[in-house]
Design a protein that fits this description.
Strands 2-1-3-5-4 form a five-stranded mixed sheet. About 1% of the residues have low confidence. The protein is globular, with a radius of gyration of 25 Å. It is built from 24 helices and five strands. Strand 4 and strand 5 form a beta hairpin. By secondary structure, it is mainly α. Helix 9 runs parallel beside helix 11.
């Protein structure tokens, strides 16, 4: 093995600290940017405000509810728990910024963990630095992972789980058929897995797939002790959340996790599309999000998602070719494969089966792609240096630095922080302020996209897409949403144009009268009940 540059290179640690500081500075910049710009560019998602409103209602009335009327479990518990002390002390935009600063700390930990993960998979630490740099500075990645939601916390804990999993799983070849790692290592893996699940419950898919690779072969050899103890530990840690869901809502899966793409279809459309047709259609639809991930990673301007496949195909070819030629890559790819399989299964579940894929759901897939890229780049450079018998210590530096510079230049987060050409208040905030000024305190408001309106409106706001409202979800499933709106005594509907067209469609219960709008994007509609 030739002498590759790594942590002992005199420039390595200065660049390491520079990348870390840059990642911290970019996220800190976002956290203190004008709130209207953050909302305008989606750097704080509407769904993030569900957590904030629920936290206020828990503190005010002791009930997990978005509107103070309907109980909800439409949240991931760990991030919701973190919200509570913040909203016990702060309110308004200040509380939102404190949550963003907590997300900054989670992202900072994720950067360090990504470096540790890639360091376990590559021989040359410069490529671990490359991976950390991509996560630290890539604008599209930052926008996906840093959004006021639980995404930063979830990604941090997923990477911690992957690091601990690799510590155990990579020893397998050295233990001659025995389950690798000490019992303490396995119990620690179980604790991390439980917290990753509580941070975002669909992480269970990735955890289960990794556990199948680790514990099923051991169980077939009669080595059950570690797997059983880890499973019991996880059940012990997550059972309070699951039992609370089962007791209050009759299902261990929270309402936000039950939303399916056909929730928004009419009853006739659901009958016309039975499950097997729905599954095929959803799987085909998942092709588009795959291309979208690679488009965002590689193409700095707007383009069709199909162009992302121009980058996916060579990556798959390179992985196939290099894995066959490079024994080191083949071995370490085997260590990483269980996690990759889990991410793929999770992605296909959301995109193909559930047909409900939000942008931030792509965070695990994006980070997995970054790790794969670093493995391939490291293998390419290392094998070429070995073949040429080179001792050039600068080759990795010259390979890595231009890539990082290109990311900073072509995928800068600044494009998501540009103020609008004409200064304006966010339309959803504007609608909220209008309702505060022009409606009575006993007014009830409805909104499908209810987070921001619910946070800034000083009136009860009922969620109508069912993400944090089980009753609205059931009404949608029965195609009875208009009746639900009527029976809920909703006085106003505040939402964007697309939702208004659906919520105010012709029905036998009420009509809508436009009261005001902002930039023709967010409308306040008066609900007039029919006799």
């Amino acid at each position: 093995m030739i002498n590759l540059p790594g942590e002992n290179h005199r420039l390595f640690w200065p660049l390491f600290l520079m990348v870390l500081a840059l990642g911290l500075a970019l996220r800190g910049w976002i956290a203190v940017t004008d709130m209207n710009i953050l909302l305008d560019h989606g750097l704080v998602q509407d769904d993030a405000y569900y957590y904030y409103v629920i936290a206020r209602n828990i503190l005010d009335g002791g009930m997990a509810s978005f509107d103070g009327i309907n109980p909800t479990n439409g949240f991931h518990p760990l991030w919701q728990v973190i919200c509570l002390p913040v909203f016990a002390v702060f309110d308004g935009d200040t509380a939102v910024r404190v949550m963003l600063l907590i997300a900054v700390l989670c992202d900072l930990a994720a950067l360090l963990l990504l470096y540790l993960v890639i360091s376990k998979l590559v021989a040359n630490k410069w490529f671990a630095l490359l991976g950390m740099g991509l996560l630290a500075t890539h604008g599209a990645v930052i926008r996906t992972t840093f959004n006021g939601l639980e995404t930063s916390l979830s990604l941090c804990l997923l990477l911690l789980f992957l690091w601990q999993f690799l510590r155990i799983y990579s020893r397998k070849s050295e233990t001659l058929g025995q389950l690798p790692g000490s019992l303490r290592d396995h119990l620690l893996l179980g604790v991390i897995a439980a917290f990753a699940f509580l941070a975002r419950t669909d992480n269970a898919v990735i955890v289960v797939v990794c556990f199948v690779f680790l514990y099923v072969p051991a169980a077939l050899r009669g080595q059950l002790r570690s797997g059983v103890l880890v499973s019991l530990l996880i059940v012990l840690l997550v059972s309070p959340w699951l039992l609370w869901n089962l007791h209050h809502f009759g299902n261990i899966v929270q309402i936000s996790g039950q939303i399916h793409g056909d929730t928004y279809l009419t009853y006739k459309a659901k009958v016309d599309h039975p499950f097997h047709v729905d599954l095929v259609r959803g799987t085909l639809r998942s092709i588009n999000p795959v291309g979208n991930i690679f488009k965002k990673l590689f193409i700095p301007t707007g383009a069709k998602p199909i162009l992302g496949y121009l980058f996916l195909l060579p990556i798959l070819i390179a992985l196939f070719v290099l894995r066959r030629k490079d024994a080191y890559l083949k071995q370490h790819w085997h260590y990483f494969l269980p996690f990759v399989a889990g991410v793929i299964v999770l992605f296909l579940y959301h995109a193909g089966v559930r047909q409900f894929l939000r942008g931030w759901y792509n965070a695990p897939a994006m980070v997995t792609t970054i790790i794969v890229l670093c493995l391939l780049c490291e293998s390419f450079v290392r094998t070429r240096m070995e073949q040429a018998q080179q001792q050039w210590h600068g080759v990795s530096l010259i390979f890595v630095l231009p890539l990082l510079i290109a990311v900073i230049v072509f995928h800068s987060p600044y494009r998501y922080l540009k103020p609008p050409k004409v200064a304006h208040i966010d339309p959803r905030v504007g609608a909220s302020l209008w309702l505060n000024e022009n409606s009575s305190p006993d007014t009830i408001v409805g909104a499908a996209n209810a987070g921001i309106v619910g946070y800034y409106t000083q009136r009860p706001v009922i969620n109508l897409d069912g993400v944090v409202n089980e009753n609205a979800h059931k009404a949608r499933l029965k195609s009875e949403l208009h009746r639900y709106i009527h029976e809920s005594s909703i006085d106003y509907i505040a939402d964007h144009k697309g939702s208004i067209a659906h919520l105010c469609a012709e029905n036998s219960y009420y009509t809508c009268k436009e009261m005001d709008n902002w930039q023709k994007s967010t409308y306040v509609m008066r609900v007039i009940r029919k006799p």
